[in-house]
């Protein structure tokens, strides 16, 4: 017996218990590391999805802004009509007339704006 009152058998039992605790702690560390790695992967995936969603939001916001833009003057409509004219189109004369009406309306609107 040693001076602390622990015999050799008790000492070996304590050593075995400590070794068991060490093995258990190692397993818990491995489990925790696997959990950390899994969470890090999920975080990276979530960040990637977030970036994609932010890009999609920006595209949709741009589309919305573009769709809200309206031609400011009827001259733009005249340009659209004249750009769509084709020499072989049977409605060319109608389109030209429509373009002339639009220009006339534009002049009237300008004149009325100046009167107010």
TrEMBL record:
<protein>
    <submittedName>
        <fullName>Uncharacterized protein</fullName>
    </submittedName>
</protein>
<feature type="region of interest" description="Disordered">
    <location>
        <begin position="63"/>
        <end position="88"/>
    </location>
</feature>
<feature type="compositionally biased region" description="Basic and acidic residues">
    <location>
        <begin position="63"/>
        <end position="78"/>
    </location>
</feature>
């Amino acid at each position: 017996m040693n001076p602390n009152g622990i015999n050799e058998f008790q000492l070996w039992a304590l050593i075995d218990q400590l070794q068991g605790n060490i093995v258990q702690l190692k397993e818990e560390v491995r489990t925790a590391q696997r959990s950390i790695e899994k969470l890090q992967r999920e975080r990276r995936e979530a960040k990637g999805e977030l970036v994609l969603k932010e890009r999609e939001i920006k595209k949709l916001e741009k589309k919305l802004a573009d769709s809200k833009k309206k031609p400011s003057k009827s001259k733009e409509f005249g340009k659209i009509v004249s750009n769509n004219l084709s020499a072989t189109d049977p409605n060319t004369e109608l389109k030209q007339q429509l373009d002339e009406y639009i220009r006339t309306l534009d002049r009237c609107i300008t004149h009325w704006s100046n009167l107010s």
